[in-house]
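Blinded run. Sample ID left blank on purpose so nobody reads anything into the name before looking at the predicted structure. Input follows.
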Amino acid sequence: MSVWAENPTSEEAIRESIEKQIAALNAPPPPSKNQKKALPEEETADQLKAASPPKEQAKVEANFSLEHTDGMLKAKIEFINGVPFYAVFSHDGVWHIALSYPTNNTFSPWQASEFPELTSIDTLSNESGFCYRLHLTPGLYPKIAFDDDQNTLTVTFDKQPAEEGEAVHLVQPRKLQDAFRVKLRNAQTDVEFYDPDTGEVLWVICADEHNKPIPAYHYPEFDLLDSYQGLAFLLRDETLDYSYIRKVAEIRKDGGLANSLATANTGEPLKSAIFSTFKADTAPQATQKLLRNLATDHSKIKDGLHLLWLYSGQGLGLEAADMAEQLLNQASDLKILPFWRSLSGLAALLRFRYPKAQEQLEFVQNEPDADFWKSIALAAQQAYSQTPNLKKLTDYSSLLSGLPLVLKERLRNDILEVGVLTQDPSLLKTYGTNMSEPVYAKYRRLYEVAKAVLNLDPSKDSSAEVLKDLANINPSSKTSVLAMLNYLKFMHKAEKIKPEEELAQLDHLRYLWRGDQLEYTLDKYLALRYMEEKRYAEVLPLLRKTLKYFTKQAHQDKLPDQMQQALINYFNQESPPVLEMLSIFQDYMSIAPDDARGDAIMIKVTNILANLELYEEAISLLKEYLNQKIQQGSDVQERKNKIYYRIAVASILAKKPQACLDNLGQIKNPDSELQDDLDILKAESYLMLKQKDKALDALGETPAQLFHKANIFVGDKNWAEAIKVYEKICSNMPSVPDHLKEQSIINLALCYLLTDDQKALTALKSQFGSFMEKRKGAQTFEFLTSPNAQVSLTHLASLQQVTSFAERLKNVFSDGK
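Blinded prediction complete.
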């Protein structure tokens, strides 16, 4: 088929050429009888406007005739004085042949008996185009041919559609301001028709070659129609802005084209549309026949879609899913076809791939079946983790009856499972007791479980026995596990079962069913019950395993927070077993909160180690905790100081004075109440390193540090220096604690006695006698200040008022520190 295509010229040359031809012929401007009207490929908008014929155009003369050849209906259109571009498409089962030019048509006589597949022919026409409408029986598809020599268009209607031709490029609008755009390389011009019967506009893009079949698709404001040459739209919204230029058709709308899912009208009973013509008795034979066709080189995409439909209607989810993928690999444009999307989503639903089913079905609009299946997929996911919205499932119950039996039974089983998990009475009634018993035996037990759950009565313990009996039938089956779970929940709520027995049965139950959302539900419920019963040591490994195998869902349900709280609660107990506590800390330290609560857990554990004199182990844990935690918050340095202090204390107890000094050096801006302990600890570290001068220099002028300095002098039998320091503490020094003042007075008396300073002893007794009367060391003070007191160095340790430094350090690791 030849096409007239002028070389690009100036606007003036084009206008002159067009005007000459119209004036000469008063007809469409083909330069010869076998060339079609066309404009240059690179024409501009101005050139299009200039090249447009006058409003009063001469018409193409055409003769329409029908004939039968090899059992196939052929529609022939012979063009007499010019050949327009044309489009072939279907709308509501009516085949349209649209011409891009006004036409004077003549019908050749035909008898209805000769063409049983044809019921009637009518036309649409206006001043810019002409359209034949052929009302044919379903199941026929056009094959288009043009005879250049005879200027004759032949459309043959066959049972097998043609698949070859130009491909269409379709771009969906992504944003509100975007257009719906279709690019077709064989497109040439556009024409529109008004249908007086429907009040709708048919916008047709005519072409010079046939294209690959373009499947129909429904949008809220318009429909893309089944098109075999060119393409056609049914425009329902008067506010649409549509245009065609340079082989691209665009549809826009102020405020954006609708892209939200249409909500099905549930005001009246709905009926299944997708499977309304499905015949279960002939489906297996039809499937075998299609499989044989697909094995040949003449198989068509439509055969594959038909087979996908048959597989889905028979409940063969795996086969349907495989076929859906194969079809998509052959024709990627299928993903914009609602029919493919609906059946692909159904196949995923049949295979329990609920997220994928929801994803596929979200795409489909104004299709109650698809929305029903999407609601099942969504509820099946949410029933295990949150409270789903079940109203849609209840509203869509009428759709179930229109589905093939095997499909109806399977989907009803999914819905009843949701009802059993949520214990929703409306759902259980609608799909349970309000419907007859399932036909297939494999679905009957869940139906019985659903009835038993619906009949549970808190005032009647016996109402749960039915569930228990059902659970004992094949206990490892999913239905039995669901029955037992509901039984245990009921008995717990009714307080008719001991917690130990309930938890033991729940723990056993979670091993009976593994690998899907039911296992997750069992683990989550058991963890909740462990927490309620304060069995924190058991909930921690359970939650850790649940997080490992159900990571995404567990994080959505905040199970890590629950696990952390269980750890905190465990260490807040009065006296958990020591070995168990150490084991739990070693396993779960990483989840301890990075705040004072986590520090408290660490302190409790290292207290145990230090009290067992396992100082190296305590130091190791403290350092590991310091590396992993204490990374954020306004009190980071304060918390670090406390940990470094404990490491320093453990180091000196482990006889590592230099390590003690190193960790003390990491403490920045310590609290004033900690300063005495830090300086005394530093002094003792220097003493262990035999650096006495540094030890004395490390001590300041506070009462506690002076007391420690005096004790160092006493240890060296340097009585004179010790007396100076004790006198300083006792001589009206402000803020001296009574216990420290008491000890200093006794030690001062001891030093006076050892230096035989009776005068000082008398003065000391006179000054502090009344203060010491009711003190713990009153007798010792009375003895040391008596006139005949004598003491030897061997008695010094028993009389000196000083606590062992090592003992004082160990107090750092006592409970409550």
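Unblinding after everyone has recorded impressions. The chain has a mean pLDDT of 83.
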